Amino acid sequence: MQLKGKNVLITGGTRGIGKCMVQNLIKEGVTNIAIIARDKQNLKQLSEEYKEVDFIRIAGDVANIQVLRDAAARIEDKWGHLDILINNAGIVAAGPLEDIQDEDLYDQVAVNLTAVMLLTKYCIPLLRFSEDAYILNISSGLGLIGMPFYAVYGSTKAAIRQFSDSMRRELAPFKISVTCAFPTATDTEMMQKFKGRKMDSPEFVAVRSIQGMLNKEIRVIFGGEERLKENRLNFEAPAELDMLVAQNYEQRKTASLDHKAV
Ligand SMILES: NC(=O)c1ccc[n+]([C@@H]2O[C@H](COP(=O)([O-])OP(=O)(O)OC[C@H]3O[C@@H](n4cnc5c(N)ncnc54)[C@H](OP(=O)(O)O)[C@@H]3O)[C@@H](O)[C@H]2O)c1
Q1: Which end of the chain is more exposed for a tag (fewer CB within 10 A), N or C?
Q2: From the CA of 249, how far away is ligand 1's center (Å)?
């Protein structure tokens, strides 16, 4: 599949994994890219950096329904159709459930889940006009295994897995494929406080996720064999994984306490 000539919409394409995906798409010849992100300055900087790209810059919060509706409307007006939708924007606020601020709980659901469902809904009519359309949803390893202190974030990401499975089957009669990626710790601003820990690079996660999308892979799971083994254990013998997780309960709790990128 040739990326050249494709119309792409990505949320959170200004930093981290999303920015690396944008850079990869540009390298592969994409020149029509719509990006939704809150920081206007970062959006402007991208257009200045890549003058050859025709950006649709949508400065707004994906938790705002009107921003999502406007994004779809602008794409329809300018391009008529969409070929690739990448639901990437995400936020995290970890810690014991009783300590997570109510607003942070709501916002994680709004940004990580509700926005993905609404934007996909608004984009389906635009994707249907593509000859070969793709949806790439960015979940998380925490969407495959429920870990303590990430109950809210992990639940939104598990819902993305379920949403991706449902949509893949729902869209099967159309030429719209759905891929869900599950990164593990990746070296971006979201993981600032874990500096020094072994992490994937955002470039690697971006390139591999896009490759998975183009290959129409159903799931792109990061973290290697170790992660696959853990996923199996979680499914087949969850009580055994409980015991392993309990061994470093306090460490996990401490590490989660100020893990917040909203
Ligand atoms: N980093 C990891 O270790 C890791 C692991 C597993 C999964 N993931 C997932 O991968 C995706 C990308 O993460 P990342 O690490 O690249 O994050 P990041 O470096 O914090 O970048 C997040 C991007 O999303 C945008 N964004 C955040 N909230 C938004 C909102 N409310 N409305 C519009 N745009 C918003 C940000 O731009 P503005 O701030 O300007 O809005 C930014 O462009 C997320 O879904 C995350 O959950 C990350």
Answers
A1: N
A2: 26
For residue 107, the ligand 1 atom closest to its alpha carbon is 31
Task: Report which of 58, 76, 61 is spatially closest to residue 7, judged by C-alpha positions.
Answer: 76
pLDDT in tens, 217-251: 999 999 999 999 999 999 999 999 999 999 999 99
Domains of the chain: 7-261 (3.40.50.720)
Number of other residues whose CB lies within 10 A of the CB of residue 54: 15
Q: What is the rounded distance in angstroms from the CA atom of residue 8 to the CA atom of residue 1?
A: 14
Q: What DSSP character marks residue 29?
A: T
Q: Tokens 């939704």 label which residue? A: 36
Residue 186 per-residue DSSP state: B
| 134: helix, strand or coil | strand
Give 146-195 pLDDT, tens digit per residue: 999 999 999 999 999 999 999 999 999 999 999 999 999 999 998 988 87
Report how far apart, in Å, the C-alpha atoms of 92 and of each of 20, 111, 173, 175, 244 are: 20, 10, 35, 33, 24
| Ligand 1 midpoint to CA 88 (Å) | 7
Contact yes or no for 107/93 (Cβ under 8 A): yes
CA torsion 91→112→231→256, rounded to 10°? 30
Q: Does the C-beta of 38 come closer than 6 Å to ligand 1?
A: yes
Q: State whether residue 7 is helix, strand or coil.
A: strand
Q: What is the DSSP letter of 104?
A: H
User: Residue 195: what pLDDT?
Assistant: 73
Q: How far apart are CA 56 and CA 71, in angstroms?
A: 9
Binding site membership of 64 for ligand 1 (Cβ less than 6 Å): no
